[in-house]
Amino acid sequence: MDIQQKIAQYYDTVLSKTHLRTLLDNDERNKHLVTQFDGILLDYSHEKVDTELIAQFQQLVDNTNLFGTLKDIQSGIKFNSTENRAVLHTALRTPEAQQVIVDGQNVIPDVYQILDRVKTFTESVRSGTFLGYTKKQLLNTVVIGIGGSYLGIEFIYEALRTHHEGQLKSKGRQLRFLANVDPVDTIRALQNLNVEETLFVINSKTFTTAETIMNAKVCRNWILEQYKVLGHENEKEILESHLTAVSTNLAETGKFGINEQRVFGFWDWVGGRYSVTSAIGVLPLSLQFGYDYIAQVLHGAHSIDQHLVSEKQVSKNLPVLLGLLGWYRASIQKYQALALIPYAQCLLRFPAHVQQVHMESNGKTALVYPDKHEQYFKSACPFIFGEPGTNSQHSFFQLIHQGSQVIPCEFIGYAKSQAETGASNPAAVRDQHDELMSNYFAQVDALARGKTKEEVIAEGVKEELQHHKIFPGDRCSLQILFQNEANPYNVGQLLALYEHRVLVEGILWGINPFDQWGVELGKVLAKNVRSVLLKNVDNHNNLDFTGFNANSATKNLINHYRAFQGKQ
Ligand code: F6P
């Protein structure tokens, strides 16, 4: 019996048969299932685990040489085997004095060359040295990008925009995002912006993503139209003053009309959804908050990168524990979803970011070494969703407490509120924050312990209502608690924690978390549909479907779409 089977057997025979209420009654157990690192506490005592299982986790990690693999990845091996690429987002936050070798070359000087350019450029924009075409200060930034070229940046922006120092650094500035190719998203992104004060950052690793390129063209036209109204028609110079790009495809950014001085590169060893700490995120975030402030995000991420490979005891390694618990819940406990609940409004967009990082990375079943992995433990990336607490309690928590399936939860909270610094009445802020966090603690216990029939009866509930008021409990969750308020350093830590836990899960499942072939099919089909729509712009019945290989149902639907457009 291998260690994975041993874990499965231990779960089936012992842990699945022991209610969390019983596990939690063991004080000795509880005190071992919590650990801290660099201002972050991880409490996993409300998971269906005990010290025996954690010892088995250690054996699993040792037997699969997890730490060896993690170290190799950070040293530049071509771990992304299906695309023959290294996986080195960790190099983006490695200190300048260290070396990371890819294809015989140290990549760290390249990383710092780009960071230095980002620092110089963003400081010149923020100080008013680099101005718009009509010599007005560029106070607004619009980021055009989608997926990994958008979600992580928005998460960090939202996380920091109410941080006291973040507010001071971004005073008078705006950061907006245009991701969806929906024209309504364009209206929202550009609404009430003065073109003379607006800088665009076109974020695309490939610079071929259809949505981003179309949005970039729409914005380019908008810039030129707005300037025309103001009586300016020098297109080349106007665009050079208002367009910047971050991409690995420098040929295409040049063709688009972006001055190469304003293009910030990165490398094929940074996956799109892992690119927030490249210029993709650092450029727009530094425009908004200043480079030195955003550099702290990189420091925080680096702290976790190091912790990942240096803490070899699984019971103390935060990202490894998160990964092991994710693997265990999905492959052993067979739970198919995960709710991510930050008790922090500033983490509003964190679940959306994690959805991409997790599900685009591990939402696949093609194994790298099919012979080495048992079907029983096959990739089982959960469906991830989430909303800030307490809003989520008043939305989907009914199902989480009493629904037919168990949905593990990860709760994230802060001991201090961002709102406290600079508040006119800090005690009132603390009071409100305590109210928020009371819910965080209460939910955890309600999920684990539930409420028994005996307890319901003891409360004097009428017989016909009793079974409605029983909570099964035995629903697992874990708690991440930050010592400080959300700040750039611990936001960087949080980013890296979830990046690495996804990797750990991917390694345990034997898949490659760094490709995304599954997204490609839809892209190709969309192109085909688009050519049909272009061919039939003014045709409202019997569309020409020549060369379009689809079933009659899809063709009918497209026919209806054009027919509706022709009706008054
Ligand atoms: O969704 C597929 C994907 O390739 C993501 O992995 C990536 O983050 C996104 O599209 C955007 O790609 P790009 O940065 O090349 O425009």
Automatic annotation (TrEMBL):
One of its GO terms (biological process) is glucose 6-phosphate metabolic process. InterPro entries: G6P_Isomerase (IPR001672), Phosphoglucose_isomerase_CS (IPR018189), SIS_PGI_1 (IPR035476), SIS_PGI_2 (IPR035482). Its EC number is 5.3.1.9. It holds the Pfam family PGI. One of its GO terms (cellular component) is cytosol. Pathway: Carbohydrate degradation; glycolysis; D-glyceraldehyde 3-phosphate and glycerone phosphate from D-glucose: step 2/4. GO terms for molecular function: glucose-6-phosphate isomerase activity; monosaccharide binding. Belongs to the GPI family. This is glucose-6-phosphate isomerase. The lineage of its organism: Eukaryota, Sar, Alveolata, Ciliophora, Intramacronucleata.
